[in-house]
Amino acid sequence: MAKVDGEAAQRTDQLDLDEEKIKMKKTSNSKPKILTIVPARGGSKGVPGKNIKPLAGKPLIVYTIEQIRKSELIERAILSTDDEAIAQVAEAHGLEVPFMRPAELATDTATSFSVVEHALDFFEKKGETFDAVCLLQTTSPLRPEGAIDEAIRRFEELRPDSLVSVRRVPDEFNPHWVFEIDERNRLKIATGDKKIIPRRQDLPPAYHRDGAIYITSVECIRNKHSLLGEDIVAFPIESPELINIDTMEDWFLAEKTFGEL
C-alpha cells in the first residue's frame, strides 16, 4: 500500500511539474504589454519650440500621433512633457497626457532613460505595470507606414533586451574608411585595422541609430539600467525620406522633403 501511495505521489508531483512548465511556456509566449511613450520637452535649443512648430501645415508632434493612431498593435500611448502648450496640442489630437514631467527631467542634460523610468514609476505607483516600452521621438516625422507595427512584431518574436531602428551608413563614412589623427599628426583607421579595405564592394555594412523607434524590455530598464542592454536587435529602415530633426538645417531639409512628397 505504501508503494502505491508513493507512486501516486510521484505522479502528482510530475503533473504539478508539467503544469508549471505549461504555465511558464504560456507566459513566455504571451504578448508583452507595451507602453508607448512620446517624449517632448518644451525647452528645445536646436529648433526652438520644435515639438509644436508647424511643419507642412501641422505641428511636428502630430505626425507621430497620427502614426500611433494608425498602428494596429499600440494599445497604450502617452505623452511625457513639461510644457502645457505641447500637452494641449497632444490632447487635442488624442494622445493621453497622464502627468506633467518634472522640471529636472526636462533639462538639456536629462536623459531618455530617466524620462522612461519616471513614466514607469508613475504607473507602478498606480498598480499598473508593463513588459516593455516603445519610445517614439517626435523628431522622426517620416517613419515608413507600418514600420512601428513591424518593429513591435519583431520585438515580440525575438524578446531581446531592446530593438533599435537603424539606417545604413553611406560607404564613404563606413568605419573601415574613417580615420583618426594621432598625436604625431598621422592617420590611423578608426577600427584599428592595419590595412584599409581597398574596394567599396568589400566593405561590411555599417549602421547608425536613426532615432525613429526604440523598444526596450522593462526587465532591461530595471535590472540593467539601460535602454539598450546587451542583446540589441537591429531594425533597419531604408526609407530615403526618413529625417531626424535636431538642428535648423534638419528642419529646412524636412520642409524641403515634405514639399517634394
What is the secondary structure topology, with strand pairs?
Layout: H1 2-29, E1 34-39, E2 54-55, E3 58-59, H2 60-70, E4 76-80, H3 84-92, H4 112-125, E5 132-135, H5 147-158, E6 162-168, E7 179-181, E8 187-189, E9 207-217, H6 218-224, E10 232-236, H7 248-260
Parallel strand pairs: 1-4, 1-5, 6-10
Antiparallel strand pairs: 2-3, 5-9, 6-9, 7-8
Helical stretch tally: 7
CATH class call of the largest domain: Alpha Beta
The CATH level-2 architecture of the largest domain is identified as Alpha-Beta Complex
Report how far apart the termini are: 82 Å
Strand order of the largest sheet: 4-1-5-9-6-10
What integer is the average pLDDT?
Answer: 90
CATH fold assignment of the largest domain: Spore Coat Polysaccharide Biosynthesis Protein SpsA, Chain A
The general outline is: globular
Provide structural commentary.
This protein has 261 residues and is α/β, with parallel strands linked by helices. It has two domains: 32-168 and 207-260, Spore Coat Polysaccharide Biosynthesis Protein SpsA, Chain A, CATH 3.90.550; 170-205, no CATH class. Helix content is 36%, strand content 18%. The chain contains seven helices and ten strands. The protein has helices at 2-29, 60-70, 84-92, 112-125, 147-158, 218-224, 248-260, and strands at residues 34-39, 54-55, 58-59, 76-80, 132-135, 162-168, 179-181, 187-189, 207-217, 232-236. It has a six-stranded mixed sheet with strand order 4-1-5-9-6-10. Strands 2-3 form a two-stranded antiparallel ribbon. Strands 7-8 form a two-stranded antiparallel sheet. Strand 7 (179-181) and strand 8 (187-189) form a beta hairpin. Mean pLDDT is 90; it is low at 17-28.
